[in-house]
Each structure stands twice: as C-alpha cells, then as structure tokens.
C-alpha cells in the first residue's frame, strides 16, 4: 500500500513526457511504479522486497512496444511485467551458500573468485532471457488450440515453454541447459488437470513444473565420471610403464634382435605414444573446466 501510494504521488508530481515520438504512459503494475517510457524500449528496475524469495539485486523488466503500448502477455492479454528473475536464482544462491559452509574448498572458491560466479550467473540469465523471448514469439505465432475438450493454455514457467495441453495430460520436455547440474537427457513434466488448469503445488499454491529429475542423478553421474576418469589415467600410466619396461628388455638383450621383435618394438612404441597423448588430453583438456564449458558436445563423448 505504501509503495502504491508513493507511486501515485510520483505520477502526479512528475512533469509530463515531452520528448518526441510514441511512448508508454507511467503506470503502477501492482508491485512497482513505472515511468513514461519511449516506444521500443525495455525498462528495468530492481526487484521489490515485497516477498521473502525476491532478490533485490536482480531486475524486473517491462517492455514498451513500438506502438507505444505496454507489452501484453499472449495468454492473458493483460499488460505484463517480467518478475521472473526476482526469484529465479534464489534457490541456486541458497544452495551455493549452504554448500560454502559445508565445504571449505567450495567456500574458498566462492570467496576468492566472485567474478567467475557473476559471469556464470550472467550466462544463465542470458540463456533464460533468450529462451523466454523465443517462447513468447512462439506463443504469438502458433495457431489457437482448436481440439474439443478442456485444455491448459500455453505458458512460460520461467525456464521452459509449454504448449496448449489437453486436460488430464502429463506434458514432457527435455531438461533445459540453463544450469551446469541439469542433465538434458532427463525429462521435465507439467500436469494439466481434468479441469483444464495447470497443476499447482500444494505448499505454494502456484503453478508448478516438475524439474526434480533434472539434477536428481547429477551427483551420481559426476561421481561415476570421476571414477572412470581416474581409472583411465591410472590405466594409461601403468600401460606406459609396462611398455617402457618391455622396450628396455628388447633393446638390452641384443640376442632378441630379429624382424618379429622389431615389429613388436614398433607396436609398443605406437601404444606408448597413444597412451601419452591420451593422458595429455585427459589431464590438460578434459580437466580444464573452462575448456569443457566452452565445448559441451565433446565432453559428452569423453
């Protein structure tokens, strides 16, 4: 109520918009006050502190389209402000903070390299914004649902885009790649109930998509990958040692010199070089987080 009262006071007090061109009128959207905004402009503000899970360091956005009208949500056809990022990173940051207390190693990483964390969050934010923009484009472009019976309206849930879905149907999609611990081979589900409404979580009473499986097995898969990684390193190291011992024996005993032994020497040398280059690839390339993050396709093959 205080924010709304101050907003109306500000709207009355501020001078009229006097710049050339179309613009969107100043308005109160229910949570924040928005000034007159030139057409074709995305207005940004810090998130409000009305809700406990809202992060004031994130930004809320409101788009003034080229015709001088505030953007309308394609489903509700009502003017809409984007508060998606106000709480989208809340759980992620809480999880990161808790892990920092649980692990000294993680704590050191977070405190000594804040720029890396900020860069990662910016990349995540950019991915989600691009996905959101494409989602709204798709919702506007796709034809209206024309099948008989009740259905749930197409929607954007903050991470993924969902099409119109018949009532009583469970919709599935592959997990998004927004977060490092999300496995794209797993599935996200969203249930459209028999009344034609998206399922609401019983605790929050908000529409809810099930991303549980996106990172449920991540820790296990990472653990198995690490085991296989160290097995490969140890295996190739032992292979090099045993091959070098064999080559030393072949070279030491001159009586073993013959065409067949020469072929074995060349074969062993090729195995040594193969193991050496494999170890270089495993230790220098596969173990470099920055290289791996820039080349997610190849890491799936390692």
UniProtKB/TrEMBL annotation:
<dbReference type="InterPro" id="IPR001879">
    <property type="entry name" value="GPCR_2_extracellular_dom"/>
</dbReference>
<keyword id="KW-1133">Transmembrane helix</keyword>
<comment type="subunit">
    <text>Heterodimer of CALCR and RAMP1, RAMP2 or RAMP3; the receptor complexes function as AMYR1, AMYR2 and AMYR3 receptors, respectively, and respond to amylin/IAPP, calcitonin/CT and CGRP1 ligands. Interacts with GPRASP2.</text>
</comment>
<keyword id="KW-0812">Transmembrane</keyword>
<dbReference type="GO" id="GO:0004948">
    <property type="term" value="F:calcitonin receptor activity"/>
</dbReference>
<dbReference type="GO" id="GO:0007189">
    <property type="term" value="P:adenylate cyclase-activating G protein-coupled receptor signaling pathway"/>
</dbReference>
<comment type="similarity">
    <text>Belongs to the G-protein coupled receptor 2 family.</text>
</comment>
<dbReference type="InterPro" id="IPR050332">
    <property type="entry name" value="GPCR_2"/>
</dbReference>
<feature type="transmembrane region" description="Helical">
    <location>
        <begin position="268"/>
        <end position="286"/>
    </location>
</feature>
<keyword id="KW-0732">Signal</keyword>
<dbReference type="InterPro" id="IPR036445">
    <property type="entry name" value="GPCR_2_extracell_dom_sf"/>
</dbReference>
<keyword id="KW-0325">Glycoprotein</keyword>
<feature type="domain" description="G-protein coupled receptors family 2 profile 1">
    <location>
        <begin position="6"/>
        <end position="90"/>
    </location>
</feature>
<feature type="domain" description="G-protein coupled receptors family 2 profile 1">
    <location>
        <begin position="134"/>
        <end position="218"/>
    </location>
</feature>
<protein>
    <recommendedName>
        <fullName>Calcitonin receptor</fullName>
    </recommendedName>
</protein>
<dbReference type="InterPro" id="IPR017983">
    <property type="entry name" value="GPCR_2_secretin-like_CS"/>
</dbReference>
<dbReference type="InterPro" id="IPR003287">
    <property type="entry name" value="GPCR_2_calcitonin_rcpt_fam"/>
</dbReference>
<keyword id="KW-1003">Cell membrane</keyword>
<dbReference type="Pfam" id="PF02793">
    <property type="entry name" value="HRM"/>
</dbReference>
<dbReference type="GO" id="GO:0005886">
    <property type="term" value="C:plasma membrane"/>
</dbReference>
<keyword id="KW-1015">Disulfide bond</keyword>
<comment type="function">
    <text>G protein-coupled receptor activated by ligand peptides amylin (IAPP), calcitonin (CT/CALCA) and calcitonin gene-related peptide type 1 (CGRP1/CALCA). CALCR interacts with receptor-activity-modifying proteins RAMP1, 2 and 3 to form receptor complexes AMYR1, 2 and 3, respectively. IAPP, CT and CGRP1 activate CALCR and AMYRs with distinct modes of receptor activation resulting in specific phenotypes. Ligand binding causes a conformation change that triggers signaling via guanine nucleotide-binding proteins (G proteins) and modulates the activity of downstream effectors.</text>
</comment>
<keyword id="KW-0297">G-protein coupled receptor</keyword>
<dbReference type="InterPro" id="IPR000832">
    <property type="entry name" value="GPCR_2_secretin-like"/>
</dbReference>
<feature type="transmembrane region" description="Helical">
    <location>
        <begin position="227"/>
        <end position="253"/>
    </location>
</feature>
<keyword id="KW-0675">Receptor</keyword>
<keyword id="KW-0472">Membrane</keyword>
<dbReference type="Pfam" id="PF00002">
    <property type="entry name" value="7tm_2"/>
</dbReference>
<dbReference type="GO" id="GO:0030424">
    <property type="term" value="C:axon"/>
</dbReference>
<keyword id="KW-0807">Transducer</keyword>
<dbReference type="GO" id="GO:0007204">
    <property type="term" value="P:positive regulation of cytosolic calcium ion concentration"/>
</dbReference>
């Amino acid at each position: 109520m205080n924010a709304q009262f101050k907003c109306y006071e500000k709207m009355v007090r501020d001078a009229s918009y006097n710049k050339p061109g179309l613009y969107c009128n100043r308005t109160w959207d229910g949570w924040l006050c928005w000034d007159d905004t030139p057409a074709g402009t995305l207005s940004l503000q810090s998130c409000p502190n009305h809700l406990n899970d809202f992060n004031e360091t994130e930004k809320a956005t409101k788009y003034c389209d080229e015709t001088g009208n505030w953007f309308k949500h394609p489903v509700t056809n009502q003017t809409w402000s984007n508060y998606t990022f106000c709480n989208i990173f809340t759980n992620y940051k809480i999880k990161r903070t808790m892990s920092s207390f649980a692990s000294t190693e993680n704590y050191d990483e977070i405190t000594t390299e804040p720029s890396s964390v900020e860069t990662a969050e910016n990349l995540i934010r950019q991915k989600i914004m691009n996905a959101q923009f494409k989602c709204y484009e798709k919702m506007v472009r796709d034809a209206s649902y024309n099948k008989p019976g009740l259905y749930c309206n197409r929607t954007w849930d903050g991470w993924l885009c969902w099409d119109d879905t018949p009532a009583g149907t469970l919709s599935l999609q592959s997990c998004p790649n927004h977060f490092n611990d999300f496995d794209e081979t797993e599935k996200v589900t969203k249930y459209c109930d028999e009344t034609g409404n998206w399922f609401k979580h019983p605790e929050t009473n908000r529409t809810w998509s099930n991303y549980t499986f996106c990172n449920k097995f991540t820790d296990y898969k990472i653990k198995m990958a690490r085991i296989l990684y160290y097995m490969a390193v140890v295996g190739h190291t032992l292979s090099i040692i045993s091959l070098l011992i064999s080559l030393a024996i072949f070279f030491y005993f001159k009586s073993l010199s013959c065409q067949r032994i020469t072929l074995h020497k060349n074969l062993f040398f090729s195995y040594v070089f193969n193991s050496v280059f494999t170890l270089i690839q495993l230790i220098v390339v596969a173990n470099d987080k920055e290289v791996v993050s820039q080349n997610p396709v190849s890491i799936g093959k390692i």
